[in-house]
Fold these 4 entries.
Entry 1:
Amino acid sequence: MGFYDSRCAVTGVSLRGTDAVAVGLMANEGGYRPVTLGITGNYNRLGSIDGIKRDPNSDAVFAYFCRRAWSGDFVMAEEYADAYGDPPRDIDSLLSYFERNVSDSSEERPAATLYGHRVFSALVARPVWNALAAGEFAPGGDSPEAWFREVFGDAREPGELYRDTLAAVARDIHALAAVNGFLGARGRGWSLPDEDEIGGQHYASEMREFLSEARTCFRDEPSVLRALDVYAEAAGELLEDD
């Protein structure tokens, strides 16, 4: 498994050179739905994140999937157990299972399933995530329970995962609800990379192209444009290094 670079699930910019936020997804009718809140880390150039700091959200996600592994509801392919553990060794390893479902699995040969269904991950550039979390698409009111229902409805998995931790992860719920609201307002949903986007490395010319496309696409969204400027500063020389 060699290095490869992913693109932001919201703007399409390269994640090379920036931090990212991972959201666990499962398939639903016609698309994908979130099953976890956003988890922040360093993009690892392997389609996922590492260097994840422990907080109530990451602790809750890791503990939940370990419990489901012990009960037999979260099942991992043996071929990845040496690398990631069974149950997963840590939150980084758990997210690596999700990534393997994105890049190296099928319905017939899943990398990991929860209640018989694959769990994937989508990655959002951290500057973009932060901008949307603080922007106009943040949900109204002051109830974490209401924000939670807005994003997850009555879905079983997130309900089990966060049942006893809503107050502790209120900020994370608010952020995901804002990003979810932004996607919905633009007539979009959560998605996974196309097959031809998986496996390659991004070089400066491609990174500049993706950034230019994002600035054109979101020219009517000042907060996203500002986030793209922050991203460009973080990527720095990578955008110029031909």
Note: The radius of gyration is 17 Å.
Entry 2:
Amino acid sequence: MSQPWKVQPTLLYHLYRGVSTLLAPFVWRKVAGKLRAHGMSEPRARERLGHASLPRPSGRLVWLHGASVGESILVLTLVQTLGAADPDLEFLITSGTPTSADLVAKRLPPRTRHQFPPLDTGAAVGRFLAHWQPDLGIFVESELWPQMLVRARAAGVPLALLNARLSQKSVEGWKKRRKTAAFLLDQFALMLTQNAATAENLLAMGADPARLVTGSNLKALADPLPVDQAALAEVQSALADRPLWVASSTHAGEEEIVLAAHKTLLTQHPDLCLLLVPRHPNRGDTVEALIRDAGLSQARRSTGTLPDAQTQVYLADTLGEVGTWYALCPRVFLGGSLKEIGGHNPFEVMQAGGAVLTGPGAYNFAESFAELREIGAAQEITSAATLAAAVATWLDDPHALDRARASGRGFMARQSEQIKTTVATLLQLLPKT
């Protein structure tokens, strides 16, 4: 049943609807090409047009949407917790990338199915909603598609925005279009932000304060990354008792800094091995060349090679093994932070019992890192020299490393109550049976 809007649609929203219809054939060609290139079947590709490839289950259906892999991991945790709280609920997960679809398929909880989301056109969204008829829609982080939100709410679906996060650039853009921003935010019955700064930004964009709740980063509540025990044992055996550190999720322009830090560390720890994990494994050839140019010996995971006693850098250019590397070594530098990229998830490191080093560009986790630095679970570095010094401290002083790891475990334990509160609030949005 349609619901009245507190804030009316704007001219900009109507223009968006028209433009999205005109561009739909071109967008469809692009996204379908990517899905086919990944090996997705034609029925699965047509999910982007709103054509479901699975039947709707009977009973109440909760629809959860996240953009890609990081959001999908959080969505899976929410599904498991919601499913445990109400065993009669069914779940639909939508995410836009083939990689996230593969991840969800491997970890699919009971009573759950995955689909690709419809393109944000009236026809595609209409077909999607007519088939699935969700009883609750949950959007994670910053994935705000106007027609998807507006048409879902018009169909009577209560909507929640969880772990809300917007870049400052995006916020400034929306502030210039405040009436349209307010209209889109008005579609949500609940907005739960990662931090106080995001809550203030949403208020500045026109969010209803009565529906806005300041929370913590729910990514801290996601399940630990999977560990391949066979691979872990194999690499442990290959490394024997050599000291190790991990540089994870590195981006272009960061590997040079990491490798310079490693060369400095080798002067005092000549048997030290660096496990280098680029964020995008398809950059493996580029990173291999950087290691070679740095004059360091290496072994490359994607070729099936294991490190030996002479390997100074183990290049882990594969997908889905980060949890194994965190289980292998507690000394972790997180990339995406020496450049203005936003940083990566520190909670995955701490769930594995590790301690975290980050650069100053981890603004996506700014409030979390501020607390982690304060309690000693994380350190901020700014250069190859400071990175080398921080790793050296954890190599030379086991007690310092133990204190950082214990602080991280304490932080994670304090987050456990947040998921219970969130789930209870979400269940209240569901229509009664």
Note: The chain has two domains: 11-22+58-216+417-429, 229-414.
Entry 3:
Amino acid sequence: MFVQIKSFLQEHWKFCLSISLCIVFFAICLIIYMRTSEKSIEQPKTMKYEDTANTDKASHALHVDSGNARNITREIQYIHDGKTSPDVTYYVTAPTIEKTAEQTAEQIKAEDAILPPVAIEKTDRTVVTADQKKQKVDVYKINLRKDHRIKAGILQTDGKTYGGIGYQAGRWEGTVYTRDGRSIQAASVMYTVKQW
């Protein structure tokens, strides 16, 4: 079989080379696109104060699924209700509250040292909003729930060592173990009962 593959590659090397170059070019373009879109999502987003408590508008503006949007708006509503206090408070002078929000977003984007370190730390999403009633600007730093995980590890039992690979979706996790890399010798499924 190896000889057949080798002879095919020798006879059709130009075709194989052109396919390989196309795949490499496609992979490079995909990586560039993903990095560019990821950077634009991570940039601070200025939202209207009332939109920060609306799940649909938050989902659209922050490019998150409805589950994450519900969690985000619930936590922001706790802040609006005064149940959660801010980590940092500071004062600036500006002509309007909207200009202050825009200026703050630009300062976060530029990682301006004038801002408190909490405001410029890297998170999955950053929301800047102007509260007209209280004449203040809120900055929400958001780390999203990561629902999908790929895991790797080892298991040792009865003096034998097995390599394992697993996948977790939400609270469910499945793992398979192998010694020889060809067949599965063991498997497990687990459910997370409590998270904190």
Note: The chain has six helices and seven strands.
Entry 4:
Amino acid sequence: MSLAESYHVETGRHLNVYGDIGELFGAITYGIKLNKNYAQGADGRLGNDHVEIKTITPFKSNDEVAVKVSGNFSKLLVVKINADFEVSSRMVDRSKLPKTAKPFLRIRWEDLHVAK
């Protein structure tokens, strides 16, 4: 994370690493066992649950993610990296997400409620 921040300070540009940082954050913080890169379905497993991990990057103009509805996941972990390179996260059960007929569900950070 410090390398991404330093690179941004020095160049004004961002490295293409935030998705990987989000996945590593999920593995370290939640104990998610990550799937192999580019595996179909979800990004990892937490017990019997398949977890999809989405990252809100520090340069994103809005705090939302797009989740493929056809994905094979039972939990969604959204990792947010803000402009100060601080990391926070929210995990929700898929059953708590709004239903849609569209192929992608757009979900805003402020609409995520922590799974109980």
Note: The mean pLDDT is 91.
